[in-house]
Amino acid sequence: MAMDEKQYASMYEIWLKQHVAERAGESKRRLANGLGHGEQRFIEAVWIPAFGHLRGLHPEYEVADFKDGTRFIDFAYLEGSLRLAIEIDGFSTHASNINRWQFSDSRMRQNHLVLDGWTVMRFSYDDVNEKPKTCIQQLQQLIGIWRMDKDQEECAIVDYLLECEVIRLALHIGKPIKPILVQQHLQISKHRTKLVLSRLVASEKLLQTGKGTQRKRVFVVNRSKLAQHFRYGR
After folding, report:
1. How far apart (Å, rounded) are the C-alpha atoms in residues 62 and 161?
2. CATH number of 151-233: 1.20.5.110, 2.60.40.420, 1.10.10.10, 3.40.50.1260?
3. pLDDT in the model for residue 151
4. Distances, alpha carbon 174 to alpha carbons 169, 179, 182, 184, 228, in Å
5. pTM recorded for the entire structure
6. DSSP letter at 80?
7. 22: pLDDT confidence band, cut at 50, 70 and 90?
8. 5-147 and 151-233 share one CATH topology?
């Protein structure tokens, strides 16, 4: 999303003031001092160009520490069941000026975030500053997994990837596909194959043809429905 400096400054200021007003204690103090250069650069060069807004993005987000204390994530993005922790790593802070204890503690902290249900993405300052398009693509790909559509917001990531692979397979073959082919390609059980195909038919991404037993049924891609889906996504 193209945005001039004035529009960006206004959006950023409103967003930051809102979060400062909602916080208390150490969290409020940290935000009142403003974000660091790397965090500001991430918002300007990566997040806003990727999504065009700051809704759902929480700076200096406080989380429980595995040592019964609290720590702060540079950014937390919360949408539905997705809890995304985003860390911006400066080279001097996270490499040359870090001791062995701090290095181990940082990794342990990330592991505990994952165990607590967080998805963690880390970006170096250099990548944010010099390769923002790569950072944008990675964020869009990750969050896109959780946005098949509003009705499937809580769909498991594995099921979504299986459905995408079925569509890819059908488009690659270019003719109706049988359940047995899907089962063999995905290397999953017959029961799970049936569930995957049923979801795709229910969402009208596949059309079912043929009658009789499951073995006699074949499926074709509903190209018009896919076109509508991708137009909506954009």
Report:
1. 31
2. 1.10.10.10
3. 45
4. 8, 15, 14, 18, 20
5. 0.59
6. T
7. very high
8. no
